[in-house]
Amino acid sequence: MAVNLQKGQKISLNKEAGSALTQVVMGLGWDAAKKKGFLGFGGGSQEIDLDASCLMFDAVGALVDAVWFRQLRSKDGSIEHTGDNRTGAGDGDDEQIKVALDRVPAQVKSLVFTVNCFTGQDFSQVANAFCRILDGRSQQEVARYDLSVQGSHNAQIMAKLYRHNDEWKMHAIGENGQGRTFENLMPQITPHL
Predict the structure, then answer these.
(1) What are the strands of the beta sheet with 126-135, ordered from one edge?
(2) Phi (first) and psi of residue 122, to 5 degrees
(3) From the centroid of its chain, how far is CA 102?
(4) Which has more pLDDT, 147 or 183?
(5) Nearest CA among 145, 137, 62 for reference residue 107
(6) Angle at the Cα of 44 (from 118 to 35), degrees rounded to 5?
(7) Per-chain mean pLDDT for the chain
(8) Would you place residue 90 in the very low, low, confident or very high pLDDT band (cuts 50, 70, 90)?
(9) Which of 15, 55, 145, 179 could form a disulfide with 172 if both were Cys (CB 3.0 to 4.6 A apart)?
(10) Is 160 exposed, middle or buried (0-12, 13-18, 19+ CB in 10 A)?
(11) What are the extents of the domains in the chain?
């Protein structure tokens, strides 16, 4: 059974999965918030383009590589983005990033997952947003973090996977920010490394 994480919570991925994980999938899902029409008529929703990114950092906090909609695979091949969803339509994960933990280079000490709205819309227009970690082999959900904090922010530092005593752990960060891409969030990310 998956753990529903709270902001700031840290877990051991191996403990929650029941075994050593070698592959994980970070899934990001969202819906466009329904608009309220005049006297209940004319409502609806618009398309929302959220973008998931995975940033690879070394022990001193230097960015090693980034996987996002403009670079769908890490240079070393250990991380792959499955593609950009520009609407949020459908159920389940709208974007996924697959991570072969056993192939992430030893110099990489943490993976930070962010979400940005490239089109500039904000989270007041987003509903049912979440990120989750799946066991890449069994597709079983290990942990889930609810991102549906509506507000005027258009970005969020979702979570961090990091190496600690030869195992991978997860930290649900949930810090709101501003920026169309992960690059705008770098000053906010640094204190979490």
Answers:
(1) 3-5, 141-146, 126-135, 23-32, 95-100, 79-81
(2) -115, 175
(3) 20
(4) 183
(5) 62
(6) 70
(7) 87
(8) low
(9) 145
(10) buried
(11) 3-33+47-192
Residue 128 region, left (φ>0) first, then alpha (ψ -120 to 50), else beta?
A: left
Domain 3-33+47-192 class in CATH: mainly beta
pTM of the model: 0.89
How sure is the predictor about 97, in pLDDT bands with cuts at 50, 70 and 90?
very high
In this prediction, residues 154-165 reach a mean pLDDT of 94
Helices (H), 35-172: none
Burial of residue 67 (number of CB atoms within 10 Å: 0-12, 13-18, 19+): buried
Token pair belonging to 93: 């994960």
Q: What is the distance between the terminal CA atoms of the chain, rounded to a whole angstrom?
A: 28
Q: Which position has the token pair 């904000």?
A: 122
- Amino acid found at 127: A
Q: For residue 156, give the amino acid letter.
A: Q
Q: Say if CB 65 and CB 131 are below 8 A apart.
A: no
Please compute the mean of the pLDDT values over residues 84-107 and round it to a whole number.
Answer: 82
